[in-house]
Design goal:
This protein is α+β, with helices and mostly antiparallel strands. The chain has five helices and eight strands; from the N terminus they run E-H-E-E-E-E-H-E-E-H-E-H-H. The mean pLDDT is 95.
Length: 184
């Protein structure tokens, strides 16, 4: 049933590209801190090579992933097949946030579609690639991407969006440093 893969080969890359949603989980080092699991959608994840993935991180209501990666780098990305044959794929690794305006962000940004409110690219060096049966995952029909976040961010001028990021994205819910205003 479960299989560990030596790399993200062409078949896995194609399968990943067909998935409409993925989940990201991180945790602080403190056992008293909050574990975070966030859904991501849209065409914002890229496989960079056999052991590296990245996604365009958009302005959100918090900065848990960024804060946890700054603290300890641990991350897992999970994909579930909601259509077609059942499958769950997990990519365990070490991640880092590349804030907008940095040279690495600028180098990778052309790989992703246009999006207003992008604040970072999350790059993950994948250490373990494993899949499992996915038999318990329901079949779901994809209808469309939501445009709520895009409409919400585009309705704000750059100063208002920067203020929102400063108010909501600079620390985690546990008080860990998130995306510093100077990093945007």
């Amino acid at each position: 049933m479960a299989k560990v893969h030596p790399r993200i080969d062409a078949g896995l890359q194609q399968w990943i590209a067909r998935q409409k949603v993925f989940f990201v989980a991180t945790a602080p080092l403190s056992g008293a801190g909050h574990i975070n699991c966030s859904p991501r959608g849209g065409d914002f994840l890229r496989v960079l090579d056999d052991h590296t993935v990245a996604w365009l991180d958009l302005t959100g209501s918090g900065a848990e992933t960024i804060a946890h990666l700054k603290e300890n780098g641990r991350i897992v990305i999970m994909f579930c097949a909601f259509s077609g044959p059942p499958k769950v794929l997990r990519l365990h690794g070490r991640g880092e946030a590349l804030p907008a305006g940095t040279p690495e962000f600028s180098r990778l940004r052309p790989l992703f579609p246009d999006a207003y409110g992008d604040r970072a690219i999350i790059r993950v060096d994948v250490e373990r690639i494993s899949d499992s049966c996915g038999y318990g995952v329901p079949l779901l029909d994809f209808r469309a991407e939501r445009d709520n976040l895009d409409r919400w961010t585009r309705a704000k001028d750059p100063e208002v969006l920067a203020r929102y990021q400063a108010d909501h994205n600079t620390t985690s819910i546990d008080g860990l440093p998130g995306l510093a205003p100077s990093e945007k």
